[in-house]
Amino acid sequence: MKKDIPIRKVEDLIVAVVPRMPFEEEHEFFWDAYLINLKNEPIRSVLVNSTGYGEIEGELRKTTTLRFFWETIDGMTYEKIEPVDINLLQMTSEYWISFSFEDYLYDKKYVFVPGSLDEMNFTDIPLLSRRGVMIK
Description:
By secondary structure, the chain is mostly beta strands. Helix content is 0%, strand content 57%. The chain has one domain: Immunoglobulin-like (Sandwich), CATH 2.60.40.2420.
């Protein structure tokens, strides 16, 4: 029965979006999205679905859904998910993460709403030693 299935909360996993550093090529045109594992142990079979949607110049638009997979992301490390074009920052960016940890399959949706990827929302991102916007 559905009531017999335990629902476990995703903890110690962050999706962060940060602007590229000034010395990086084409830094002013892209930001980068990262998946950060703050657990001390690795997570396995990590699948990320990313998509963007919203209104740009009065027209509803949706990006292609991209999928990324890692067999393992070690504890206290991060992986770059994708570059994010600055023209898409005004759209909703959605990252749906699924992974296995201690023989349980977890999933969580991280949603950056329009306007949230702004310098006034910047914070220090763990492990990256950079500033950006994150959802824990």
